[in-house]
Specification:
- It contains 13 helices and nine strands.
- It is an alpha/beta fold and 358 residues long.
- The strands form two sheets. It has a seven-stranded parallel beta sheet with strand order 1-9-8-7-6-5-4.
- α1 (21-31) crosses α3 (111-120), α2 packs parallel to α5 (156-178) and α5 (156-178) packs parallel to α6.
Length: 358
Amino acid sequence: MTDFKADALALLIGSLPMKDHNAATELILKYTPEIPLWAQLPFYREEGMMAQFLPGMPGLTESEKGKLFIDTAGADFDEAYLAFFEEYLSITEADGDITQSRFTLTPETGRGFKAFLNHIDRLETRPVALKGQVSGPVTFATRVTDQDDRAIFYNDQLRDAAVKHLAMNGKWQAKEFAARGITPIIFFDEPGLAGFGTSAFITITREDVTSVLGEVIEAVHSENGLAGVHVCANTEWDILLESDIDIISFDAYSFFDKFILYPDMIRSFIKKGKILAFGIVPTSDVKDIARETPQSLFDRLTGQIRELEKLGISQKDIFKQALITPSCGTGSLDFDSAEKVLQLTRDLSKKVRAEMMT
């Protein structure tokens, strides 16, 4: 890990209900200047969670109805697949230029990333870290389908390509941030892990999940970045707690009682110096957002910290190795509710740092 100190700083998850990437970046810098991120604006179809990271995949095709899928039956698929891996190997084994590769965001999918870097390069005060995000390999490969509407996770060839594609995108983002002399933090967003262990994913093993996560984590680590996984619902947390992930981002507002069911693993995770991103600011219900205040969330969070203390983890260590975040992105909210989420996140972080870490 780098020398990055979490220290209960505020961090966001990614999406905003806006249309202007520059305005979104300015809003992010206003509320989270220490660890800003680039904005995903789902108002644009190409910035949807899957669509944003599909370009560059071999066999990518759009149906007459506008659905994106991987067509393995096309006459040119084998050639496209070979070209994909040749480019991958040119970067990983021949020191090729990843910034000019298929693994970057495109001009259409990367407008938020470009606007973000333009703003960062003009800042007088350097951030502590920069955050990027990529669709997680489990979620991506179980939601993207082939021409027969079958999830590509179940095709070894396509799963391998998808994992390498996402890993290289994470590596590229981390490289861009590190080039500016700032610690990279790259989150892999894995809402799909909420389904692990259910009948929907009955053929996916723990080893499958560990393997694909390990590959994307390693790619970020290769650029001296910190790798995080964000799950906005409940999952089998032991998979992540035992992994090489540096940051686990979880919905502490709704699922803390589920997360704490892994006491030994949580203790071990903290002992290793890793970070918990407490998604304590609600995002799923506008009534919750309207009702909560920095004080009410402070009371909820400190209650959770006391529960962790009972596991034998010192309060000092928890706060040193904590980030304060929303429970999920805000892209599906109305603007006023989304901005309140950002404000609550900032104000709660300031309150925790002032009252619990002095």
